[in-house]
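Section 3.1 - Work completed
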Amino acid sequence: MNKLLKETLRALLPLALGAFVLYWVYRDFDFDRVGEVLWHGTSWGWMALSLFFGVMSHVFRGWRWKQTLAPLGAHPQSSHCVDAIFLSYAANLVLPRVGEMSRCGVLARYDNVSFSKSLGTVVTERLLDAVCILLITGFTFLLQMPVFLRFFDETGTKIPSLVHLLSSPWFYVSVFSVVGVFVLLYYLLRMLSFFERVKGVALNVWEGILSLRRVGNVPLFLFHTFAIWACYFLHFYLTFFCFDFTHSLSFQAGLVMFVGGTFAVIVPTPNGAGPWHFAVITMMMLYGVGNADASMFALIVHGIQTLLVIVLGIYGWLHLSLGKASSFSR
């Protein structure tokens, strides 16, 4: 019963955190306007182009993952790697960060790839992603430093007065988000300690982590890495052109909001729901977009991008299942 309670809390806490932040951000929002903007104020051509880059970011990630597995003697099908990525992002909607485990399970089932070794490559991939986002953040911060400083001021993270800080609603949103990150780290440490207790698994994980040193075709690997992050950015930035109230925002504004949104999705809520909205809305207002329009943008864009994740997850599951069924029939 105690284990069941822990698993239930593990599933419900991210949902509760996301719901709390969303409620706080949208408590005074006019939802009657959503349908009008969605059907009459959205450029679906630009949205389709944005979604294309969203799909390609997963495809490039799947291809890069196959490269990191090759030094381990694992050669899964490229389509299986991509389908596993599709499924992992969809799984994260149900239970944040469980996707990293699920995609390793996919290759273990369909290509007999060692689960622990592939998990090590995922750890390497996440470390590489962290380096990439830090480089992008550093470049963006230097490019738009005054905007970041204003963001810190307006969200209550740089206010001299403690009384003013405690009276800011955004302060409590930030606190809840930070708490969520620490909860995620706690579960990751618990997971790591579990693996260390299993004989041989820790060594396999470490071998997977070191696979990056022996990856073949380094230029192609670097291209895949660049393409992943370029697609992530275009997936977000091109949505500016979908609405009259955001189409004039600059490339630099896109970089700032992309960085803010990327850090926001670290908070363990489904697809960053809540913290992502908070970060993007606040930063968009710094560039002159009204609160109502910024809130509309975040609601529609996040909703459509989350729908894409669900559709791709269903596609990945069907493609894997039907492919296995057809192989048995032969």
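Second construct:
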Amino acid sequence: MTRSVLVTGGNRGIGLAIARAFAAAGDKVAVTHRGSGAPDGLLGIKCDVTDPDQVAAAFAEASEVHGPVSVVVANAGITEDTLLLRMDEDKFHRVLDTNLGGAYRTAKAAVPDMVRARAGSIVFVSSVAGLRGSEGQANYAASKAGLVGFARSLARELGPRNITVNVVAPGLVDTDMTDKLSDARKAQIVSEVPLRRSASPEEIASAVTWLASASYVTGAVIPVDGGLGMGH
């Protein structure tokens, strides 16, 4: 059955790989972006996830074109890395408001149609940093850890309506975001990964698409990190 899927931040990196994986499976896919547009085959919707009105408008547009959204992937996120001693209030709150606040706004906009349909799947893209911590990323790690508690609360709230809510926690993935890391920092991280390599965005996408179809899995946190976060 063809589904209406919306992926926030789905115009590049992990989000784009997720969007393409759903499209390859025959789903109708909308992706949000902040102005860069979307590749052919995907419905691009300009949206800033820190603005609730824009998020609501994005769902309205996706529903109008593809039908009510039944699968949502909250992937949009940013980093503003620095040590705590140098981290100002704005830098902390900007990351929290985008990564965790954006997921809240996305889920809140998605739920009414899912409740009416008594079906749906929400997947949050977290990070291994939210489970094991990461120096220089206290803001980012806090936002990604928050997704776990948020998802599990929603899993309990929405389970009786046949709506699943899950989390994927990637490790080091080859994207524009990780390209900003120095070669030395990448090598250090890879040395801690049992599989001794980074992931491709497509490897994260495979876990997301599986969760979106796993009808008896909810409240789960699936690490896709090559073993980096084991024990966390």
